[in-house]
Design brief:
Elements lengths: L8 H14 L10 E8 L6 H20 L7 E8 L4 H14 L3 E4 L3 H14 L2 E4 L5 H5 L5 E3 L4 H16 L4 E5 L3 H17 L5 E4 L4 H13 L4 E4 L3 H13 L5 E4 L6 H7 L7 E5 L9 H9 L8 H18 L4 H10 L2 E3 L2 E3 L12 E7 L2 E4 L4
Helix pairs in contact: 2-12, 3-4, 6-7, 8-9, 9-10, 12-13
Family: Belongs to the leucine-binding protein family.
Keywords: Amino-acid transport, Signal, Transport
Protein name: Leu/Ile/Val/Thr-binding protein
Length: 377
């Protein structure tokens, strides 16, 4: 199968789709090309976030190629679906290694990134994620791992501060659905809240389903809960919020970056109005991303959620390769650690762990199917 470099966004999307379905790298790659692996969920609960990241990556590839590519080489993308599953992510990582791919944008879910990063570390592959927030991902100190998004411990600290400042005198529940991300955020937020001197009125875990969501809503309502913190994904939280509203339970819901997709408001319906969430600073509203955001909108796409972060991930690789005059992953990694770059996120660098130095999390509120900064209480 032949996948050609992009000249239009439509061609890019077609090439990505065909390459991903084939499960292989472009067969027309030459010495003038460099293949970048892209690992994200194209199936499963987080597919909407995967699509956001993919839109950003393909736009960044198009723009970079128009300016000379990565280190003077035309960028080709090998897009693979990991479904946010650790085992599939490991298989995708091994696919990239066997295909000779040395640079990867991915993965999206933290469990997938952590599993795949072990393969990359053992084989000299550089990975940069646009959406994996687990502190453990970078706290291990692997020199080849980077992220342009925030960390879940920072998100949990902000969540606890907001709960304390806005809802100190309310009955707060902290719930989680036993998935790794939701469990980690619930635990960290609870710990931070307790350190501030506030104890939650109720802490509970549940298995998401229509029946269990209804039972949980009744339990929370019966306990007089006024504020509910939940780190579940857009589909799970959307369903829980909707079912609770249908049963006459309308607390102040508080979610996380996992619901930063319009799927949440579509599933929750009118009950999504007023829901709070923590998410990264929205760069699409900031001057450094103005031109990129404008090009998205010109094509009828609103660059919300992780789209700009997907763009930034590939843009960082391109910037470091250009600075170091190399496509070697070790040289790019060393440059990412040492220098600062003007990206769509602003002027940023990466610390010794590989965490980006950009501004962290912000509080947002959902209104009429969109989320905007919540401002002061």
């Amino acid at each position: 199968m032949t996948v050609r470099p992009w000249t239009t966004r439509r061609a890019a999307a077609l090439g990505l789709m065909l390459c991903g379905l084939a499960g292989g790298v472009p067969t027309n790659a030459s010495a003038a090309d460099v293949t970048v692996g892209v690992a994200l969920p194209r199936s499963g609960a987080y597919v909407a976030v995967g699509e956001q990241v993919l839109r950003g990556v393909e736009a960044a590839a198009r723009d970079a190629n128009a300016r000379g590519g990565l280190g003077g080489h035309t960028i080709l993308l090998d897009v693979q679906d990991d479904a946010c599953d650790s085992n599939k992510a490991t298989a995708v990582a091994n696919h990239f290694v066997q295909s000779g791919v040395k640079l990867v944008v991915g993965h999206v879910c933290s469990n997938a990134s952590i599993a795949a990063s072990e393969v990359y570390a053992a084989n000299g592959v550089l990975m940069i994620t646009a959406a994996s927030v687990s502190a453990r991902l970078t706290d291990r100190g692997l020199p080849n791992v980077f992220r342009v998004c925030g960390r879940d411990d920072d998100q949990a600290r902000l969540s606890a501060i907001v709960l304390a400042e806005r809802f100190r005198d309310r009955k707060i529940a902290v719930i989680q659905d036993q998935t790794p991300a939701a469990r980690a955020l619930a635990s960290a937020t609870k710990d931070n809240l307790n350190r501030i001197g506030i104890n939650e009125a109720l802490s509970a875990s549940f298995t998401p389903s229509d029946a269990d969501d209804a039972a949980l809503a009744d339990r929370l309502k019966g306990a007089g809960i006024e504020v509910v913190y939940y780190g579940g994904d857009a589909a799970e939280m959307g369903r829980l919020v909707r079912i609770a509203a249908e049963r006459g339970f309308r607390p102040q819901w508080f979610g996380t970056s996992a619901i930063a997709t319009e799927d949440f408001s579509r599933i929750a319906g009118p009950a999504s109005n007023g829901v709070l969430m923590t998410f990264y600073l929205d760069p699409s509203r900031q001057p450094p991303a103005a031109a990129v955001a404008k090009s998205f909108r010109a094509e009828g796409v609103e660059p919300t959620g992780s789209s700009i972060y997907g763009y930034a991930a590939l843009q960082a690789l391109v910037a470091a390769a250009g600075f170091a005059h190399t496509t070697d992953p070790r040289g790019i990694a060393a440059t990412l650690h040492a220098e600062r770059f003007d990206l769509v996120l602003g002027s940023v660098g990466f610390d010794a762990k590989g965490d980006v130095t950009a501004q962290g999390y912000v509080l947002y509120v959902w209104r009429d199917g969109k989320f905007t900064p919540a401002g002061k209480p």
